[in-house]
Each structure stands twice: as C-alpha cells, then as structure tokens.
Specification:
The chain has 357 residues and is an alpha+beta fold. It is built from 13 helices and 11 strands. The chain is globular.
Length: 357
C-alpha cells in the first residue's frame, strides 16, 4: 500500500524566524519574536509578543490537503469545552482559521500556547506522571468519541490498522541486518496478537501521535525542579498539554493508548511497568474492552516497528533531515526489551493494572 505523499516532502515550507514573525504581523496583527519548534514535515514557531503573550504559528505546506487541516481545527473546537489541555485555533484578521501565506501559498494557522515542557525533556517519569498521561489520552479519546470528519477517513501510513502493509513495503530499507531482523520478529508477533482480536476493536477519531514531543508536562516535572525539590516533583507530576493533531485518523480507538505507551517506554528500564501505569490511567477515564486492553502492549511494539520502517523510507527521501532520526536510537535500544517480555506476562500485567486480574 503506497499511502505516502512524496509531493508533500518536496514542497516543505522554508520560513526563517523573521518570516514567521512577519506572517504573525501581516495575518494576525501581532508584533512578535519567533523561535523554531521541531516538526516532522511542516514548520512550527513559538511567537512571543512584547507584552509577554505567547502563541504557536503552524505552517503546513501547500501540498497538504486543506480538508485535513480543517478536520484538525474542527477536532480542537469539538474538545475545547471538554478538556483544557489541547490548543485552540485563533482566526486571522480576515476571520479565517486556515490562512494562506502570501507568495508561498502555504497554509498558516495560529493556536494558543500551552505552558509546559515536552515529556521528552522531563527527565524521570514517575508512575504518577505516566498515569496522568494515560488519563489525559483517555479523556481526549472520550471527548473525540462522538467527533467525525470526512477527511480523517484516509489511508495514512502511521495508521496502526495499516501496519502490516507499511512494514512489508519498507522493512527492506532498514539498513542494519540485526535491526531489520528484530523489527521483523517483533512485528510478526504483534500482528499475530492483534489479528485474533481486531474484530472487537472499537473505531473512532484518535490523535494517534501522543509521542514524547507532543505531550507537555508541568514544569515542576523538569530535571531542574526534580533536583531542587524531588518530593514535590513526584507529587505534582502531571500532563498539561497534548498538541499537534496532524496525524489524526479514524481508526482503532486502542491505537491511541498504544502510541502513548510506545514512546513513553523508549529507553526506559521497565517497559511493561510503563505500559501498566499508562493503561491504568487510560482505563480509568475511557474503559477498554478486554480485547483492547491486552492488545495495547503488542500494538505499542508494532508502532515502534512502523516508526523504524517509515524513518528508513523518509531518510532515503531526505538524508540530511536530522529530525527523522530523533527516535531511532531509542527504538533500537528498546525493541530488544519489548521482544523479551512474554505475551502472557504482558496481558496479565495490564489486566492487573486495571484491577481485572
């Protein structure tokens, strides 16, 4: 299944800091300074006004389907009255929620800024923080349960329901033979576990990219705060933001907690304990069916395999893009630990975490 869009890769926006600030001024009437934020295929900038107000301007390339951007906006508006930890879209001077950058034709959106630090930079991940992550994803999925939009019914390479096809298409591009064999083994086991349960999986709109850069945590969870006041950091650790709806898709609901588990357990000392804490929080907010519950761990491993394969393909297209490799080292180090956990042990641990053993 070839569900990639090379044209998007070839037409990525190329704004500098001054250009981002100019867009804010011309399109939104804001005088700001800009700083770059990481992004896979678009450009994001944090904007700060002279009065200290903060926003994020998101620039999507002109090849991106506008309907998908409108779906993201609609989803954020849909959940706005139900969760407080997702951004809100702000209109241009002309009243548009999706603006067009002069000259380049790229799509521009301005969203509210959420104060926090990325989970990737938070240092230690105590159980309280992982449970908070699970609860946040559960609340978001509950809020999205009655949301729909035609654009999210799409063939999308990150969709875990398409994992078998994506891995089959790109596995050969994983250069290291040992890595390739490990991805083959973990994905085969995961797909077998999923296949016997998938008919019971619910389907809904999901964020589908709750990775450790798209999750914001309270600043008391920062490494500096943990050193100065470790007990307070543990007690107050919580998720305060889930951002970037760009990978939203209508698929298996259980994919959302699985993606959260996949990235939270990278380079961790106990992947199964990480999964158990997140699933416990998620299940408390948005109860999982038993078939979904026991599928979370194999789906998390499958997401890491998909990431390794897609990264290999993308690096072939953009060999100089360092962002594409950001998770690959941790994935290579984490997959052996995931592969070493017997499936029955993982099932029992997740059931026990939710009080269902």
């Amino acid at each position: 299944m070839d569900c990639h869009k090379p044209s998007i890769l070839q037409q990525a926006p190329r704004f500098d800091l001054a250009g981002a600030a100019r867009l804010a001024r011309e399109m939104y009437g804001l005088d700001t300074s800009a700083s770059a934020l990481p992004s896979e295929r678009d450009q994001n900038f944090r904007l700060t006004t002279t009065a200290g107000g903060r926003y994020v301007v998101e620039i999507a390339n002109a090849a991106e389907p506008r309907a998908m951007l409108e779906a993201q906006n609609a989803a954020m508006a849909h959940v706005a009255d139900r969760v407080a930890f997702c951004p809100r879209v702000l209109p241009t001077i002309a009243g548009d929620t999706v603006g067009i950058a002069p000259d380049s034709g790229h799509f521009v959106r301005l969203v509210t800024y959420l104060d926090g630090i990325p989970l990737a930079e938070a240092g230690a991940r105590p159980t309280a923080l992982l449970e908070s992550l699970g609860r946040a994803v559960g609340r978001l999925d509950r809020a999205l349960e009655d949301f729909d939009h035609p654009a999210i019914h799409r063939d999308f390479h990150w969709d875990l329901a398409h994992a078998a096809a994506v891995i089959a298409e790109h596995l050969s591009l994983v250069h290291d033979g040992g890595d390739r064999q490990l991805v083959r083994r973990v994905s085969a086991s995961a797909l077998q576990a999923v296949e016997v349960r998938r008919s019971a999986f619910r389907r809904s709109a999901v964020h589908h990219d709750v990775n450790d850069w798209n999750v914001l945590v309270d600043r008391s969870s920062s490494p500096e705060s943990a050193i100065l006041n470790p007990q307070s950091a543990i007690r107050n650790a919580k998720v305060v933001g889930i951002i970037d709806f760009g990978d939203m898709v209508h698929t298996w609901t259980v994919a959302d907690p699985a993606v959260a588990v996949a990235y939270a357990m990278l380079d961790g000392s106990d992947p199964l304990a990480t999964a158990a804490a997140i699933v416990r929080g998620y299940h408390a907010e948005h109860p999982l069916r038993d078939e979904e519950l026991v599928a979370v761990f194999p789906l998390a491993g499958l997401r890491l395999c998909v990431s390794a394969c897609i990264a290999a393909w993308q690096q072939q297209q953009r060999p100089d893009d360092e962002y594409l490799a950001v998770s690959q080292g941790p994935i290579r180090r984490t997959l052996p630990a995931v592969a070493a956990i017997p499936p029955r042990m993982a099932e029992d641990a997740l059931r026990s975490a939710c009080g269902l053993a």
